[in-house]
Amino acid sequence: DVKVTQSSRYLVKRTGEKVFLECVQDMDHENMFWYRQDPGLGLRLIYFSYDVKMKEKGDIPEGYSVSREKKERFSLILESASTNQTSMYLCASSFHRNTGELFFGEGSRLTVL
Amino acid sequence: SQQGEEDPQALSIQEGENATMNCSYKTSINNLQWYRQNSGRGLVHLILIRSNEREKHSGRLRVTLDTSKKSSSLLITASRAADTASYFCATDGYSGGGADGLTFGKGTHLIIQP
């Protein structure tokens, strides 16, 4: 079975802390994505990557950065967490660059106090 | 940017009835996909329909696509309590060279009453 694993299901952090959200996929997919999901706003794309060491901004990259040092791992970094970054974060991967099925992780629910 | 918009936002029906959800989008697409999300979990892919297809079936799911109206519908037949979930449409937002992942709508929350 294909699998996308997010390291933490629930996190509670304080304002100003640096936060790392890790995502690993075992399908040898080149494409990986980070979305955030908020009530009434749906899923919004933060960053994506089509290759190792490559990253592209999505719709809402402000306040976030990413790292893709290995093909299977895509990390989302909140350099200085703020309360408006409290959200559900969803990692996904795909085989096809822009048109294929996305495989999602279970999500990481982050609360920033 | 948000491309797909599902309608209705919420739907409650009795077990055994059919459930229909609609999705409208704005720009040309290569394909449209439907996903399901159980409460507090990740999204799971249900079905993909290409822009040159009009209808597609998968088990109890039936998806239609009308590119002239830029709309799609998802029909779940003979609903079960386990179908209770949120359903999202997603489009690839084809722009002849752009590559920015899938764009999701805000979802339809479906509740199946036992």
Number of strands of chain A: 12
User: What's the helix-strand series of chain A?
Assistant: EEEEEEEEEEEE
The unreliable regions of chain B are 95-99
The largest sheet of chain A, given as strand count, sense and whether it forms a barrel, is: 7 strands, mixed
Average of per-residue pLDDT values of chain A: 93
User: What is the helix content of chain A?
Assistant: under 10%
| Shape estimate of chain B | globular
The helix/strand series of chain B, from N terminus to C terminus, equals: EEEEEEEEEEE
Strand content of chain B: over 45%
Give structural notes:
The complex is a heterodimer of chains A (113) and B (114). Chain A is mainly beta. Chain A is built from no helices and 12 strands. Chain A has strands at residues 4-6, 10-13, 19-21, 23-25, 31-38, 42-49, 56-57, 65-70, 73-78, 87-94, 103-104, 108-112. Chain A is globular. The N and C termini of chain A lie far apart (37 Å). Chain B is 0% helix and 53% strand. In chain B, strands 2, 4, 5, 9, 10 and 11 form a 6-stranded mixed beta sheet that branches. Chain B has a 5-stranded antiparallel beta sheet with strand order 1-3-8-7-6, with no helix packed on it. In chain B, strand 6 and strand 7 (61-66) form a beta hairpin. The N and C termini of chain B lie far apart (37 Å). Mean pLDDT of chain B is 89; it is low at 95-99. The A-B interface holds A 4, 31, 33, 35, 40-43, 45, 48, 50, 56, 58-59, 90, 92, 97-99, 101-107, 109 and B 1-2, 30-31, 33, 35, 40-45, 48, 88, 90, 92, 99-107.
Summarize the structure.
With 113 residues, chain A is mainly β. Helices cover 0% and strands 51% of the residues of chain A.
Give the key terms.
heterodimer, A: 113 residues, mainly beta, 7-stranded mixed sheet, 51% strand, B: 114 residues, 5-stranded antiparallel sheet, 0% helix
